[in-house]
Write a structure and sequence with these properties.
The protein is mainly α. 73% of the residues lie in helices and 0% in strands.
Length: 716
């Protein structure tokens, strides 16, 4: 009853405070083009803490309600539940009490002076805010000293008040629980005194608790003849465990050594381009904070930015995907790769394209600045040639499969490679790229490269590696097929949503927006399929160093893809486009989805191919630095990009947006540094997996193989 009164009074106080605050905010907190970002952040943090306090209050109230309902749920069995929860000493007390009845009644009394003071503070604050006069309008009203003082006087007491209310409710909850337990204990003691059946149950429970083994039940009394005992190779922990114990990787698979070597070359090249490409990205990210770091044309932002993007796109992501694809395509087809030699041809062509293309970009030789197609056509022809060689290799491998069906992974992988050949062809043929045609082709090329090459290929990899890692079949093959065809239908239409309000025909812009909405179908169906595959297996995440990469990639797949749909609408595009929000979005997808999924697959399969696995602590360091880094990178850029877009909409000069972004670019540099450092850890883990020492099972296997060929008295 006390709790209900306190809650009612608290709500009355908050309601009295709310109208005054709302009226004040309606007059003062008007949209102001010159608003202060720091004040907005402080207000947001304050509201966040208020929400946390509210959740705390709700949790306390719910706990009280559950305590009150517990007795009713248990019914007549509550006495026996109480008996089973008692220890031997407490049972002794009940037994002795039956012979020596003693009653002790303690009533908890607590005043409400503190709560009354809190309510008085609430009423005073509400009266102050309600009767506050509206200050004169000012262009910088939120940055004025008076406003800062007023906000401080409002928010600090508000937070303190809610916190004090929470403490009061917590004390009420503690007293209520104490009273309930004391009441139940007293009723139990009276039942033991008056009911012989309950007393006999107490005796039986006491005997059960006092029973002790003789320690000879399993061993017997005869001395063991085995001097070594049963336990062997027992490891003792002499220090504290700083890292959670993870399961070891599966034993080394019996794979074709030539195929393993080919895959390692692809993954090794990918890791090299990841470190080098993100080192370039780290440097140009720092230049946002220190723009006068150099005055060399080859190191200018305009030249290094495409070097960074193309190196991580075509070098890291594409090569890692192809290397993993050689394993998946042959494994799910239950056959060998059609031609290992063709795999090396593809590897050489792709590496040559990236080396030559990067050098040309730094020298200022490019394709006119089209995003993600800065390589000139001869360079991209080399890369496309490598893709075509591997595509025919994959198709011929699938054609000689030993299974009747084609598993869904091969659907996604082969389709992605077919789409890439189409994308490159459309993007580089020149005869229809005049005027607006070039803009339309640019939107098609850029977006299809992300969605129909990187995303499509990675989904195919996850459809194999995730069920294999969970030891659980994919939840729904039908959902996978739905996602497959719906992504082909809708994603190929959405490229021009990057050119809303441009000279492109209005109907074509509308088609792109409709296609972006349609992309919710494959995203929702794919995410549901992956999460339902996790169903019943979420407990495995804490014991695995690969599953966290999968779950983060899946969550980013959902959030990043739906964010892309939200960006496509005309209202949001008007604010977010051409701001740093799109930079955050591209990293949320290409890094949060593609990179995390690739890392998950690499950490899954490489230890099984080489027999060597990295230090689990270093894998954890890689995961957390990459995750925290991408969050530090994307969230500030999304906030800053939104504020910049609003400032532009309100007619602010461009330079004001540059000044506004300064602190957010600092966070970008910090997050990028964490991401780059995680790549160094990943490169070391790759080195360990590639060139680590042979494991004990491998050495033991070799020794046993020599036993049949070596004379008995010879040394092994």
């Amino acid at each position: 009853m006390k709790l209900k009164i306190y809650l009612i009074l608290s709500l009355i106080g908050m309601l009295l405070l709310t109208p005054g605050t709302a009226a004040y905010a309606a007059d003062v907190l008007k949209p102001d083009p010159a608003f202060n970002t720091g004040i907005c952040i402080i207000i947001a943090i304050t509201i966040f803490f208020l929400l946390l306090l509210l959740l705390w209050l709700i949790r306390l109230a719910r706990g009280l309600k559950e305590d009150e309902a517990a007795r009713e749920r248990n019914g007549d069995k509550w006495i026996f539940r109480q008996i089973n929860s008692l220890d031997s000493r407490q049972l002794d007390q009940l037994i002795s009490r039956r012979n020596h009845r003693k009653k002790t009644i303690n009533k908890a009394k607590g005043g409400n002076n503190g709560f009354t003071a809190v309510m008085v503070l609430l009423l005073v604050l509400s009266s102050l805010v309600t009767h506050a006069q509206t200050p004169a309008e000012s262009k910088n009203v939120l940055t004025s000293p008076g406003m800062i003082i007023m906000l401080t006087l409002i928010f600090i007491p508000l937070v303190v008040t809610v916190f004090l209310i929470g403490l009061k409710i917590r004390n009420v909850a503690v007293k209520s629980r104490y009273s309930r337990v004391k009441k139940e204990t007293r009723e139990l003691a009276e039942a033991v005194d008056t009911d012989d059946a309950i007393y006999e149950e107490i005796i039986r429970r006491k005997q059960a608790l006092d029973y002790h083994l003789t320690n000879n039940e399993l061993a017997g009394t005869i001395e063991a003849e085995d001097s070594k005992g049963i336990l062997l190779n027992v490891d003792e922990v002499h220090g504290p465990r700083f890292f959670a114990s993870k399961r070891k990787a599966a034993h080394k698979h019996q794979a074709d050594p030539k195929l393993v070597k080919l895959i390692m070359w692809y993954l090794g090249s990918a890791a090299f381009w990841l470190v080098l490409g993100t080192s370039v990205g780290e440097y140009i990210g720092i230049k946002f904070v220190s723009p006068y770091a150099d005055h060399i044309s080859w190191l200018s932002f305009g030249r290094l930015r495409p070097v960074h993007t193309n190196m991580v796109f075509w070098g890291w992501s594409s090569m890692a995907m192809l290397g993993l694809g050689y394993y998946v395509v042959s494994t799910v087809s239950n056959t060998v790769v059609y031609s290992i030699k063709r795999g090396y041809y593809s590897l050489v062509l792709m590496n040559a394209a990236i080396i030559i293309g990067s050098g040309m970009l730094m020298a200022g030789i490019n394709n006119g600045g089209g995003e993600y197609r800065e390589y000139i056509w001869p360079v991209m022809a080399l890369f496309a040639g490598g893709i075509v060689v591997s595509l025919f290799n994959y198709i011929q491998t699938i054609a000689q499969r030993k299974t009747k069906e084609i598993y869904i992974s091969n659907w996604y992988i082969v389709s992605a490679m077919m789409f890439l050949t189409v994308i490159v062809t459309v993007g580089y043929l020149p005869f229809y790229q005049d005027g607006l045609g070039e803009t339309i082709v640019q939107g098609y090329y850029m977006h299809q490269a992300v969605g129909m090459w990187f995303m499509f290929f990675n989904l195919g990899l996850v459809y194999y590696f995730l069920p294999q890692q969970l030891n659980t079949p994919i939840y729904s093959y039908s959902l996978g097929i739905l996602a497959f065809w719906s992504q082909i239908l809708f994603y190929t239409l959405i490229g021009t949503h990057h050119f809303i309000f441009s000279s492109i025909p209005w109907w074509l812009q509308t088609v792109a927006i409709v296609g972006s909405m349609g992309m919710l179908i494959p995203v929702f169906s794919g995410t549901t399929n992956f999460l339902m595959t996790f169903r019943g297996n979420f407990n495995k995440i804490g014991r695995s160093y690969t599953l966290p990469f999968y779950i983060v990639g899946i969550l980013f797949y959902f959030t990043g893809s739906t964010q892309g749909t939200a960006e496509a609408f005309r209202e949001t595009n008007l604010i977010w486009h051409f701001t740093d929000f799109t930079v955050a979005h591209s990293h949320l997808t290409m890094y949060g989805i593609i990179a995390f999924m690739l890392w998950a697959c690499i950490y899954t399969i490489v230890p099984r191919l080489t027999g060597n696995e990295p230090k689990q602590g270093l894998v954890g360091a890689h995961f957390w630095m990459a995750l925290i880094g991408v969050l530090f990178y994307t969230i500030p850029l999304m906030i800053g990009g939104t504020l910049k877009g609003i400032a532009w909409r309100d007619g602010k000069p461009f330079i004001d947006g540059v000044v506004l972004m300064a602190p957010y670019w600092l966070w970008r540099a910090i997050g990028g540094s964490l991401m780059w450092a995680s790549h160094l850890v990943f490169a070391w883990n790759m080195y360990v997996m590639f060139s680590g020492h042979k494991s004990d099972p491998d050495i033991r296997k070799e020794v046993f193989e020599k036993l049949d060929t070596i004379p008995v008295n010879a040394e092994i």
